[in-house]
Structure formats: C-alpha cells, structure tokens
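During the reporting period the student researcher (J.K.) took over the structure-prediction task from the postdoctoral fellow and processed the backlog of single-chain submissions. One of the processed entries is reproduced below for the supervisory committee.
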Amino acid sequence: MLDDLKYIHQRDGQDALGIAERQAGQLEYKFEVPKIEGDFSNIVFAGMGGSALPALLSHSWPGYKLPFEVCRQYHIPAYVSAKTLFIASSYSGNTEETLSALAEAEEQGAVIAVMAGGGKLEEIAQQKNYPFVKIPAAEQPRYAVFYMLVALVNILEGAGLLNVQEASQQLQQTAEFLKQSVQAWVATVPADNNPAKKMALELAGKSGVVYAGPLLAPAAYKWKIDFNENAKNVAWWGEYPEFNHNEFIGWSSHPIEKPYAVIDLRSNLEHPRVQQRFELSDRLLSGKRPAAHVVQAQGETLMEQLLWTVVYGDFVTIYLALLNGVNPAPVDLVEKFKQELG
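J.K. obtained the following structure tokens:
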C-alpha cells in the first residue's frame, strides 16, 4: 500500500508528504523582526497546539538566559510584569486562549511581541504598534512549526536573550542536513529501504506511547501531536527520568494485553544516566510491555538531532495515516469543535 503512488496521491489530497519533505526550507526563511529592548527578568510565551510547539522546541535548543514559561491556557502567570517579555503566538491569529492571555499581559504592563499568520492578533499588533512577525501560509499550524521556530529565534536573538550565539544562522545551516535526510523517507523510496514506511507498518493498529529524555522531550510531544492530527490515532508521550518514578511501574500489571506501540526517541547527547535508564527500563519491562521501537536521533548537534527527530515523526505518522485510510492534513473535528464552542 505505501509503495502504491496512486493510492498515496488519492489519500494525501493536500500533499502532506510533500510538505514534510519541503519543510526544511522553512529554516532558510528570513523574517523582518523589529528590535525589542528592555530590562527583562523573564519571558512568557502564550500559544496553543501547533503554535506552542516552537516555544517547546526552543526551550531545548537554543535555550534561554532568563526564566522562560510556555502559557497554554486563558490566564497568565501571576509574576508577569513590566519586566516580562510576553510573546503571543497563534498561527490563525484568532486562538481565544492566546487572546485572553494577551489581554491579561497588557493589564500587567508586559512588553508585548506578536507572532501570527493574520487574524485578530495581527489587527491588535497593528493598532497598538507591537513588534509583529507574520508567519507564511501553511496547510495547518503543525506544518508551519519551523517557520515559527525561526521567527521566535529571530525575536529573542535580537533581544539578546538566547543561550546560543548566531542561532538563526545555525538554523539556516541545518536546512541542508534535513533536506538530505528526508530523501530516505520520501514516497518513491520502497518500504523495504524506507525506515519511515517500515516504522509506520510496525505501528499500524496500535496506540503510540512516545518517550524521550529532556533534550528530545519536545520532539516526543510533537510525535504525540502527529499521531493525533496526522494519523487520527490516540497517543501519549512521557519523559525520562521522571518515567522511572511513576509510569514505569504502570506497565508492570494491568491491562495484561497492551495494544500499544512504545517508541523511544534517544540521543547520544542526553545525560549518561538517562541513556542508561532507557536500556535498564526496557530490560526490566521485558514481557510486561511491548518492546520499544528505538529511534536514534541523527546529527552531530542537539539542534540537528532535535529537528531530525521531528521531521522523521512527521513522515512516520503521515504514512500511518495512509495505512489508516485517512487524509493526514485536515483536522475537521477540531474545526467543528471551535464552531460549537462559538
């Protein structure tokens, strides 16, 4: 089925596979970002769903010099003040939780910056002269994650708040590494030689449970989202070493039959004890849970490994969608829910 190009074209009506193949090019996009100055003591990023993903990724790489919190709800942290750089992010520009959080941040006198593809957020930014970065069009917010990561890095690099120097330049340099990597996963490569197709075939009919250490945890969360939105599968994610303090024992008993696929996203850059925990956990849980499918992140740097793992998950879950007989791109039930919510 996954080698039948006619079937793929029929099911993948919005060319999700093509979007996944081309998304490395988003890292080369050049945004015009107004300079933001201030005596900041913390950073708060407000966003939901795919619009929050760049912040989660950036927390792992390139990291921050100041306390950084991602706000995914209607209310903001109580500490937000005039010393807070508050970034409102919504691909549509109309996400109600983000608009609510923005209004509260304004009341607290925070310094505001906005990232959006349009909508009410763009209107507010123009009316109030907030620094604004417009995100290019994409089929779905989760397909614009690299655009938004570049935009966020540009904003915070200009404000001098990142741990890594010349982060935006490093993102551009990583584009070529990803462009080469994805060639092993594209639709024209047969399943026998295509790791992404092979993994999708192994995951079919099961609910995914994705684990990672602290460095790749944002990628594990992205895999969970991709299971949900691409493959229309329920899925979960977790993080080591916390896993060994609670969830680990949950695998040891009920339910006896476990219709899950366990996926370990591993990096040789994780703390050595975290790497050891993966190995020991899999051994001690042998026979109590399905053996883990190990994804060893490729790349020499954390940034390369993090983004490589994200894109690989995109391909795997898009192929899983095709095996499920569904179109990977649309999220019709989410749109219906928004309409019902009013």
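The committee noted the following: The domain at 184-323 is CATH 3.40.50.10490 (Rossmann fold).
J.K. will present the remaining backlog at the next meeting.
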